[in-house]
Amino acid sequence: MSGVITAEIRCDTPPNEHHAVFSLYSAGIQFFITASPQEFSRTIARFVKDRGDILPTTHVIHGSHTFFDSIHTLLTEQIASSGRSIYCTTGCSACCKQVILSNPFEAALIGFNLARDKEKLERFLERYAGWDAETKAMRSRFPGWAARRALHGVDDGSFDQMEFTAHCPFLADDLCQIYPWRPYGCRSYLALSESCIRPREPGQRPGRQGMGIGMSTSFHQRRQQLLGLLWQAFGVDPAKTRGHFLPDLVKHFLDGDIAGLLARCRLP
Length: 268
Ligand code: SF4
What we know:
This protein is mainly α. The chain has helices at about 15-35, 35-45, 55-80, 105-115, 120-140, 140-150, 185-190, 220-235, 245-255, 260-265; strands at about 100, 170, 175, 190, 210, 245. The chain has one domain (about 15-265). About 50% of the residues lie in helices and about 5% in strands. The strands form 3 sheets. Strands 1-6 form a two-stranded antiparallel ribbon. Strands 2-3 form a two-stranded antiparallel sheet. A hairpin with a 2-residue loop joins strand 2 and strand 3. Helix 4 (about 105-115) crosses helix 9 (about 245-255) and helix 9 (about 245-255) runs antiparallel to helix 10 (about 260-265). The longest helix has 27 residues, at about 55-80. The structure holds iron/sulfur cluster. Iron/sulfur cluster (SF4) binds near residues 96, 100, 171, 176 and 178.
């Protein structure tokens, strides 16, 4: 868990931009407290003027991450005080060798912060090239499979998440290089069994026996609503969207291809 401020206000940020960052960041927190879609959408509409400008949404996602981290802290403290062990430790990357799906807004938050750290950016681009080559054939089967599953409820077996074992390109020396900005899926994961690190059953993979802590709270459902409202701000029906590979999305953001970034997450 991290309470690190990511898209922080810098001293060279003009005053009117301070206002925008605070308003959007607060909206990302407030939505989980007051649950007012109208108020939230009004705030977003004030700042997302152009459908190519995804940056305002990064502050909203940052706010929602901050709120989620506080829930995560409370729940993990409760779990620990009930006597259960938590097996997530610094340097364990068991859950970082699988499909990590995300959305354009989380990807923009990561890309925005990555672009400000030359060393991490170069490291990512180098690792991304390897990941891209290693997984290209498998990833090419994903959009069709995901669309058939989402639209017709059919898993035709053309894509199998269990076969995907590539290391996340944000992982270096078993540490997440974007830890403060990592997506909700990674933030939410909690290993409550040693078998997450060392599976006992044949055929089990490391990093897949934990729980998504967000799923056990109303946060998850509320977050889906928040993402839906962000999609609507870009003129997209949220029911026609799906997750896509996080590294690909971040690469689109870094390339300045916002249309491609949004298109990757749309169903046909
Ligand atoms: S983003 Fe970070 S935490 Fe998530 S899979 Fe990649 S390296 Fe692991």
